[in-house]
Structures are given as structure tokens and as C-alpha cells.
Amino acid sequence: MDRRNNRRDAEGSSVITANRLLDGRIVWLAADGEWSPFIRHAHVYSNADIEDALKQQIASAQDNELVGVYGVQVTVTASGPVPITSRERIRAGGPSVHPDFTPEWQEHPAVSPA
Amino acid sequence: MSHAPHSPLPVGHYAYDEVDRTFLKQRVAQFRDQVERRISGALTEEEFKPLRLMNGLYLQLHAYMLRVAIPYGILNSGQMRALAQIAQRYDRDYGHFTTRQNIQFNWIRLEDTPDILALLADADMHAIQTSGNCIRNVTADQFAGAAADEVLDPRVHAEILRQWSTLHPEFTFLPRKFKIAISGSPQDRVAARFHDIGLMARNGENGRPVFEVYVGGGLGRTPIVGVKLRDDLPEEDLIAYLEAILRVYNEFGRRDNIYKARIKILVQALGVDEFRDRVNAEFVAMDRARYRLDERIVAAIRARFGVPDFDPAGQAAEKLAQQRKADRAFDFWVRTNTHAHKQPGYVSVTISCKPAGGIPGDVTSSQMNLLADLADQLSFGELRITHLQNVVLGHVRQDKLYGLWQTLEQNGLGTANVGFITDIVACPGLDYCALANARSIPIAQKLSERFASPDLQREIGPLRLNISGCINACGHHHAGHIGILGVDKRGEEAFQITLGGAADQDTVSIGQIIGAAMSEDETVDAIARIIDTYLARRTAGEQFIETCRRLGTAPFKDAAYATA
Ligand code: HEM
Ligand code: SF4
Question: Positions of the region Disordered (chain A) (predicted)?
Fold first, then answer.
């Protein structure tokens, strides 16, 4: 993973992200250890504490069917963590040029019963 | 196994036979096995990554991205429908045509990839050589086999190069990727001098083709205009000479530093004379008989390309002239979006994939299906993807143009802007690309809206505007008359403007950065002021690039940074 995206200030807080191996989609590590497509579920670590958690997650990436595990610095807001870089905001929200392709977008929308 | 295709031959297209098809099927089976081993954990990501890249599969920001090869930009209608099917079934209903005449799908799932490759193989397509340090898809003139000014059909030689380079044992691990472009006309429509090797064909004294050979051009971090190695390479030596160039590159190209690994750096480091001497030394030492490109081989490859069965011109030209007179909007479209054909009664049509405010190069599955239908009805089932992210119907009868234009208009594909300021080239940028600094698409959309007025665009005249989201220059920003480069200012997007680049004229040049980076909206305003400056200061009939060369960048820079 590009080291530039895994940069953190000494102070501040971060969340942990990855891409799912099977479909490549972006996920965020939640407090219960599950990986969620929504950054609002992400557990926020202080930058002082994140290194150990990251190390552990990188080691278990294969078991969790994940690739490219890294940390993303965020600002914590009322609606949840918001990444400080535009790149990570686009990862969290979907491409800005397709407002419908948010993380809520489903590959196979539920078919309504006939 | 026989090595002979079934008839009828696809027009403009090399016909695959059972040998080719069996090879593709084996590749799909091999990749299916690799994907299964990756999912089971038998292969680690480090082991798997080079294998998936060899099959065109990248991991981008939001998902996997699959880059499908479109050899020399030519598709038949069935292949376009296969792409539409992939977009619809496995992606989010669209694809992105690229400046390397390929298509990229942005939302691919790893699990689905073997099935997608199988679907492609059924349409004689694949994603091989779209990634990695190999010889990439050879690009060719989008008016090949049609243009009035053409000397030879470059697709035949592009196919010969494809066969020579595919899986060439010596060239699967070059120091870095290697891109070849070939033009069959004296007019450079392929940006020959911005490629690792650029070839320009013309007829030699004995009526056999000869090639001008350029080497060491490229964009990216270190933009360089290619230098001429040979003026008159005979056709029979084409393979031997290119092989010699690649051997020199393979031996002396740098492998220690990815930023210095392209052949352009080697050519600059050695100097063109020393580089040429080394190529010539390799060339004379080679078993030339073995590499000789015999006339009969060329003829055999040419025979695998279908040729259009043209109708007599009849009254086609007169009918078109009347229709143009009767409908002004149609007339404007004909002026910008058609190109002279060598066959009386026919033209080539460039279909703009750049509607006002649209995403350059993005095409939906229903548009792909429509394009395939139109190709069947009007252009012998053949389509071309251009390196400027548009689609070409090569051979349309002049009296069919009006109906074609009306259908295109109704489906968002009738924009009359080819070669104008809104015919923008843009890479995927930060909306999709893992390497990006800034988004390329939103700024392209804002500029496209800003200059959407057809009258204003015609007033401005020919102008190439190219946008890349980072220094890799996939959007050819240095080659744009106006270029935009996305940079990263401590995590925020910003843009630099370059001026004076050109790829397609007698004077090839690299655009120069005019100053500090600005925000997206500031950049759009700055470009509007640059255009105002041009309109105010041009002499009669002077195009933007000419004014730029005459005045230099200073007045434009002043305008760009002038604040109200
Ligand atoms: C989204 C995934 C992409 C990635 C990761 C990527 C990566 C790169 C990189 C690393 C370079 C620089 C190579 C060098 O200077 O040695 C490059 C150059 C280039 N790429 Fe891309 N690219 C992507 C998409 C595209 C697209 C969509 C196009 C076509 C629109 C494209 C066409 C080119 C071209 C024309 C160049 C510059 C010409 C040259 O090789 O000198 N790439 N790309
Ligand atoms: S120029 Fe940069 S941002 Fe654009 S596609 Fe290439 S690598 Fe990505």
C-alpha cells in the first residue's frame, strides 16, 4: 500500500481500512472486530495506539479475506469520522462523479416479489 | 491444428483461428485456477498480484479494475456487445475508453473475473499485455484503412507487431512497460513522438513501405519528445530493427530505479547517436534471415483482415450537400465530426463521447449496444476507439450521415465538438485511481459546461485540452495545447496549468507549467481568462496553439493569475 496514504500525525486519531479480497470493495474496522462498508461504523483509535492494532490486522488480513490494510487519519464529527485527505473522503463516500455509487449501492438490488 | 480462419472475415480486423482461440481458453483456465488458489489462501497477495496484472486486473480505489485490450483500437460489433454485456452484468452499466484505445471497467469483482475473461475469449478478446513491463497494446491511427491521406493500412503491421511481441520470451520482463504506436499516413494521428517507439509509414522508392522510426518519447514524470532513429526502414527489416532496439533497451535500460527505467531515459543518457550505434551493432549481428519480414508474410496477415465491400458512390455526395444546406446543426456536426475517406461516397465519422458536462470516455451499456447496431447498419460491423477517447465508424456512406446524426443526437452521442475545447481528454483521476493526486473528471465536467455553447467553441476553434490526475500523465496533459495536472497540497487537491503542448502537428512540443497550483474553481476561471486572452490577441485565422507559440506563455500567465 502506498505509504503516503498511511501517514499520520503524532497527535490525532485514525481508523483502519482495507479492500475486501473477493470484490475489492472498501471496508472499515468496527469496534466489534467486524469490517463494515460504512466509515460511520469505524472504530476510532488515537494515533498513539493504532500501530499495534494495525500490525495485528495486517497479520490476519489473509484470514479475514482482506488486502491492503492501513490506517486513515480522521476528524471526528457528529456524523462520524471524516478522513482528513480528499483521497480517503472519496474512498469513504464513493466517486464524487456518481452520487448514486455510495457504499450503500447494492450489486443486486432485492427483486420485488412478482 | 489448421491455422486458417473461418469466413467471412471481420472487416478491418484480424480473424482469429482455432489456434488463437485455444490459447485464450487455456489462459482463462489458468487464471481461473490462480484466482481459486488466491481465494483459498494458497497464493498470497504478493504472489498473486503479478499474475492478476498479467490479466489486466488492477486493484483501484473502490474495487478491482479490469483493463481490456482493444488491439489497435478496432472492435467488431459483436465485441462491442460483449463489452456492453460485461458493463451490464459485472459492472455498474458503463465502461471508460482510455487514451491507449482500451476500455476499463471500474467495479469488477475478483470472483467474477474468470467468467468475464471467458466471455471476452468467446468474442476473441482478452486483457493480456494491458499491464506489466511488457510490450503493451500497439496503438494505431483511428482512420486506418479509410483515410484519404493514408499510404498503407497500419493495422496489418500493428497486428504483425502484436504477434511478434505477445509472449515474446525475451520481452516479458523488460525494465519497464513499452508502448508502440503506428501511423499509416504522413499526418501523425497517433502521437508517434510520445511513444517508446513511434512508426510513421510511407511508400518507399520501389513501391514497398518504409518506416520513419522514432524512439524514446513519452509523457509521465519526465516528458520527452521521441528522436528519429531511422528515416527509411524497409518493411522487411521492421521486426529485426525493433528487436534490436528492444535488445539494447533490455540490456542497458535501468532496473534499479522505476523512475529511470523507461527507454526514454536510456536514450537521453546515452545520447541518440550512441544509442543508434548500439542498435545498429545489434542489428548487423543478428540473424537477419530469421527476422526478415517477407512480403508473403505481410500478405498472409493482410489476407486475414476483411475489407469493406463498398457500394458505388451514386448520388451520395449530392444528397449530403442538400441535407447540410437544409440543416445548419447537422452541417456543423459534419464539419467537426467527419474525416475524408479514400472511397468516393464515403466518410469516416467520429462519434463524440464528450457531451456537454459529461465524463470524457464514459459510455453506458445501452450506448455500446447502440454503437454496435449502428456499426452493423452503416459501417460493415466495425468500430474504432480513438486515443482521444471517442469512437469512430470508419466507413459510412455520405447519404446515410443525416440519419446517423439524428440517432446519435437522440442518444447523447451527437455532440459536434471533435477537436474543440470540450473534446477533453481526462484520465480517471482521484475518483477511481489509487495513484491519483486530484480528481480529473469534475474539472473536465466544469470546463465542458463552461464552454458548452457551440458558437463559442467554433469561435475558439481547434484546441486540445488534456487532464491528468497525477504526474503519470495518463491523460496526456503535457501534449495538450492546454494541460491540467492534478497535484496534492497536503491532502487537498490542486491543479497546475500547462500551455503549448502538441502531439499531432509538425511541431511536437511539451506543455510548460505556467505557475503555482490553484483550486478547481480557480483553475476553471483561469482557463476562461486564458481563452479570453487568446481571442483578444490572435491574428486572423490563428489557432490557439499558434498564438501561444507566437506570444509565449507570459500574457497567458498574467491572465491566469490576474485576480478580479
Ligand atoms: C487507473 C489505473 C491506472 C494506473 C494505475 C496507471 C498507471 C500509470 C503509470 C504508473 C504511468 C507512468 C509510467 C511511467 O512514466 O513510466 C502511466 C502512464 C500512462 N498511462 Fe496510465 N494508469 C492508469 C490508467 C490509465 C488510463 C485510464 C489511461 C488512458 C486514459 C492510461 C494511459 C497511460 C498513458 C498514455 C501514459 C503515459 C504515456 C507514457 O507511458 O509515457 N493509464 N500510467
Ligand atoms: S494520470 Fe495518475 S491519476 Fe490519472 S489515471 Fe494515471 S495514474 Fe491515475
Answer: 86-114
